[in-house]
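Entry:
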Amino acid sequence: MPKTPARPPANPTDYSTLEVARLLGMAVRSVQLMVDRGELEAWKTPGGHRRIASASVDALLARRGGPAVPASAAATRPAASPVRQRPRLLLIEDSIHYQNLISMLLAQQFPELELHMASDGIVGLALYGQLQPELLLVDILLPGIDGATLITSLRSHPQFAGSRLIVVTSLDESQRQPYAFALQGLPVVHKPRLVMELPALLRQQLDQIRKAGL
């Protein structure tokens, strides 16, 4: 696991881990994991406190289709964030390629959705409890907890009744058989056909959410 490098403060608008978690609508642990994976640039103060570079946060927001944050707003933005009414979509997917592909697709065709991402099943389960998103996209083969176990766990929670779930996977039909117990009744998108099939499924699920008044 990469260590957070130490360096003197270069930018007074860099963030604490808690500020980034509030800004992205994620758990603090999820942000820490993103730093460990190198998805966010961070450093430590002489006192040992982790700081996350504002430029890397802005770059992450830009990749997800969100606006960059002015440096002058760094101190006030997390506390002043308005209550969001946009439908939330939680993507639980460990492939950076498919994270980027789905992020781009959503930004182009579903700008009304608020995207959150987790790269493993454990973080995904924790984020689901925090966010209670209306939509879930879940891969089957995940580190931590595989997608089938994750789905089974989610279905045991009463709040799951308010969510719509779509499975995305690189496994063909025969390879999915060991996970059939969890996939029954769920729409499944084979990753080679993701760009062709996912938008229609998302529109269908969004229509159901709107009709249900969720």
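The radius of gyration is 18 Å.
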